Amino acid sequence: MEITVYLYPKCSSCQKALHFLEQTKQSFKILDITKTPPQIDELKKMLEYQKGDIRKLFNTSGILYREMNLSQKIPTMPVQEALALLHTHGMLVKRPFLLGKNFGLLGFKEPLWNEKFKK
């Protein structure tokens, strides 16, 4: 299975996700979301997996999200603009951000990850 996971190294949820992937012996590629944010095509793919709900791609508890007042802006923001913002500012992206073959996971919710990886 080909897996790409975008993480923020200091994020506890990301560390739990990394530990989970190692424990379940998954083969994966890690990218630091602050240095290499997801590409537009990856964000579009994740948006499909989230049934078009762009808000789910945002780290709504992050400082930058609040500073930019995005909770007020996202509802009327064009999708392309939102995707460009996520691609430009990795700290706005919900993490961990995992793309596998034909699926995507946002955040670390262990029951969902167990189901996806059939632990």
Task: Please outline the helices and strands.
Layout: E1 3-7, H1 12-23, E2 28-32, H2 40-49, H3 63-67, H4 70-73, H5 79-88, E3 97-100, E4 103-106, H6 110-117
Parallel strand pairs: 1-2
Antiparallel strand pairs: 1-3, 3-4
Beta strand % = 15-25%
The number of helices is: 6
Structural class: alpha+beta
Terminal-residue CA separation: 14 Å
Instruction: Write the CATH architecture name.
Output: 3-Layer(aba) Sandwich
CATH topology: Glutaredoxin
Strand/helix succession: EHEHHHHEEH
Query: What's the number of structural domains?
Result: 1
Could you list the spans in which at least 5 consecutive residues all have pLDDT below 50?
none
State the helical fraction.
40-55%
**Largest sheet at a glance?**
4 strands, mixed
For the structure shown, list the relevant keywords:
119 residues; alpha+beta; Glutaredoxin; 4 strands; 41% helix; 15% strand
Structure, described:
The chain is built from six helices and four strands. With 119 residues, it is of the alpha+beta class. A four-stranded mixed sheet has the order 2-1-3-4, with helices on both faces. The protein has a single domain (3-117), classed as Glutaredoxin, CATH 3.40.30.10. The radius of gyration is 14 Å and the shape is globular. The model has no long low-confidence stretch (mean pLDDT 96).
